[in-house]
Amino acid sequence: MNTTPSSPSEPTSGPASDASNPDASGRRRRRRRRRTDGPFAPPATTESASTTAPPPTVPRAGRLRALAPTAWGLSPTFRVFLFLGSILGVMAFLLYNEFIIQQFRDQERDRAALYAKLYGLAISQALPSEVSGDIFDKIILNPNISFPLVVTDHRGRINNWKGPGLPDPDDTSPAALAAVREAIAEMDAVNEPLAASWNAEASVRVYQDIESLVIIDPAGYAVVWSGLQVPASTDTSSAYRQQAESVGQALQDRGVVPVVFHVPTDSLNYLVRSGADYAVSRAGHVIAWGGPTLPAYVDGAPPRVEAQALYDRIAASTEPFAFRVHNEQLIHYGDRQLWISLAPFVTVGVLLLFVLIGWVGSRNIRRSEQRSIWVGMAKETAHQLGTPLSSLSGWLELMAGRVSDLVTAEEGSRAAAAGAVDEVVREMQQDMGRLNQIASRFSQIGSVPELKSADVREVIVDTVDYFKGRGPQFGRHDFVLELETVPLVPLNVELMGWVFENLFKNAIDAMVQQEGCIRISARHDEERRCVRILVKDDGRGIHAENLARVFQPGFSTKKRGWGLGLAFVRRILEEYHGGHIHIPRSEAGVGTTVEINLPEDTDNVKEKP
């Protein structure tokens, strides 16, 4: 049905029009009786267009927005980005915190490595005694070191310790040593100990008699042994090693003079023994020897032919005893107590602070949204009530004039005057019904409304008639209806009427100070099993940057708008009716198209009358 707007020459049913023309109501009744077309009959000029015109395409952005959840407050897209941004922020903080901790650990490791080198250099004989003394006094024995540090030999014997969290270095009681060993285990679990080796050679002592031979390293440990009084050299367990050391100590106590020589510490050495004679080699070259049938050993002298021959002869038939002398010291160190040890607690504290700030910010945003919604609700209520109340005010003023005419009317014109009063009363009753409808609408917001199968076209026509009947208030615009046969859909008629009122009012506001056309079409989308409704206007359109925000609570481009109209529309359609609303097209200066999809009720299909 192509309805025509109210023109200046055609009075409307509004009170202002009737006040200026007393006979307007009679002509309006006659004009209504002349209407013979059905309320859903589509115009002949648009029937072919509706069957041939392809449906408007929905941009990809609109389809993506359709998947976003409906919620009050911040837009879904913004919430997703805020959530992802928060996760990225926390991850960045954790990674940066781990980076800082690793930096501190690297610094501590570098300091421990430098300490190990200085320690090895100080105990070597490569430096003058006064330089070595300064290193020991100012660095190695400095009690103000900021990290725990323990020095042990290669077999784990504790030489010294210092730093925070360790016992007093002067306390050598069993309890203090046990505490130091516990600290060593904890530090080694975090930081691998560093080795300090200062010389490539070590001085060893050989104790032997006719029955046994034991070689002792500079730390007093037995490194290799052979003979009847000692265990087999192939067994290097701690118990057998201690037994060999006991034999060496017994030889020393008997006054046996050891043979002292130097062996390399960076490779294996080999021992062969024949009776009381022995020879020690490195890579097949004899470096030390001893025994009654061999020449006397002189440290630093070239190897003797007899010793080399002994070694070659025995090595050709018997596997030599391999051994290695260790002279390195192990530096065990821990993390700096103030920074690294407390780093996990600092991380947790910052995360809790971040959560607290997020919670306070979210609460403030929610309170701000609630305040905006309550103020907007009040404004929307005043806006909804304003239309029927202003109409009632006009009808009351007109009623006063009509009653005065009725009182002063002559006998022949009294019936016409009474009819005019009745007409005003009926219009006032319509506005009172309108007030009751508004109250019913607001009472259903926040509750689950009752849905009944209904024809959405009837709601559209009733809403269009309401706007047409108040032309001076809303402006002079054309309403073009293209309503095809559609199935019944589950509806709450009052809330759905509110939806169309908001959409039509926005379309009219978009065409302010200009004449325009609002085209409403409805058709059945069998593929999607829904009723598809398009509301098109030729107003000023919506800017592209605002398309994603028009349904957000509080967003409005109007000077006096509170941005709740379309938010209510979306809530009513999507949360209460299970439908969907979006804007498939809007161009500045061309107009806007709003699409509504309502799921059909397949039990009944109402045919076109």
Mean pLDDT: 75
Strand content: 15-25%
Biggest β-sheet, characterized?
6 strands, mixed
The side-by-side strand order for the widest beta sheet comes to: 1-15-17-18-20-19
How many domains make up the 3D coordinates? 3
Describe this structure in words.
This protein is α+β, with helices and mostly antiparallel strands and 609 residues long. It has three domains: 1-67 and 449-609, Histidine kinase-like ATPase, C-terminal domain (Heat Shock Protein 90); 101-197, no CATH class; 201-326, no CATH class. The protein is 46% helix and 18% strand. It is built from 15 helices and 20 strands. It has helices spanning 15-20, 24-33, 44-52, 60-67, 76-123, 129-140, 174-190, 238-253, 305-317, 343-408, 414-444, 456-468, 471-474, 493-510, 565-576, and strands at residues 2-3, 149-153, 158-162, 194-196, 201-208, 212-216, 222-227, 259-264, 269-274, 277-282, 285-290, 321-323, 329-333, 452-454, 478-483, 489-491, 517-525, 530-537, 580-587, 591-599. Strand 5 and strand 6 form a beta hairpin. Helix 5 (76-123) packs antiparallel against helix 6. The protein starts with a strand and ends in a 10-residue tail after the last strand.
Write a brief structural summary.
Helix content is 46%, strand content 18%. With 609 residues, the protein is an alpha+beta fold.
